[in-house]
Request: fold
Amino acid sequence: MACKIGIPRGLWFYDYYPLWKTFYEELGAEVILSNPTNKKTLDAGVKNTVDEACLPVKIFHGHVLDLKDKVDFIFLPKLMSAYEKEYICPKFCGLPEMVTHSIKDLPPIIDTEINFNHSRRNLMKTVYSFGNYVTQNPIAIKRAYSKALDAYHDYKEKIKGGSYPINGEFNDHDLNREKASITIAVMGHSYNIYDQYGSMSLIDKLHEHRIKVITPEMMDYRRVNEYAESLEKKMFWSYGRKLLGTAMYFADAKNIDGIVYLSSFGCGIDSIIEELVERKTRKEGKMPFLLVTVDEHTGEAGVNTRLEAFIDMIEWRKKNETNLSTHG
Ligand code: SF4
Reply:
């Protein structure tokens, strides 16, 4: 019988899951994803995580609990660095330890370290180590990894083409790009903006107003990088670097009417980045900017009211003239 590998639908899931799902399926494993985030996931996560953790980490714990009794292994790599000379948030680095200390009686964890600051040879060693949970055949692992990379690139291209991986699934029925007269960039970590429950359906809400939505993952990575390179000081947090580069790109772009930054309460990186993004876009780029910070207590009604006021202001500004307050 095929071994069952559970992938929690949180954090790096939104950036990498097609890669690991394809990899393990090619090796003959059955991959089981946790259910999309819902109230039960959130409540279970909040109950089993330290209070100081940010909302996405709490949600992640809820996803692990959802998989706990359904699988033989839980995929929970120790993601240190995804780009050379850069680091992911410290909470990612300590995630396997945090989860195993908070949740008892888990199945074995696939907690191999991913660190792009090590050599390329080491990267292949890492891939073999992931594959060895299913097979000892290096040729099969290499072949599966190559197919997985193809799936990963297809996924990235699809997002760049304007699709949204809401809960990790593409659903294009609600695109009204031809009819949209307003374009809003939704900024934030991928696991915040594409998690339907955690984001309070932000993208759908904007679509209901016939607004075209663009996200950081749709931007040309090379251009974003060029902007990020021009920062006075190198930003070594990968997510921060991507968001700042994107904000500078948007500040120069003439086709964006406003920015909504979706942030998590308790996120150390966001507390710096959102301020810098606001400076680059609202203050320097004269672009309307709305910051929405969420935690497990945030009421959806309050977010709706602020969002609607922001949209009204952009519509008014577009209809009347361009030299108005950018405070949102
Ligand atoms: S970057 Fe922020 S939101 Fe993401 S895991 Fe780290 S602290 Fe949490």
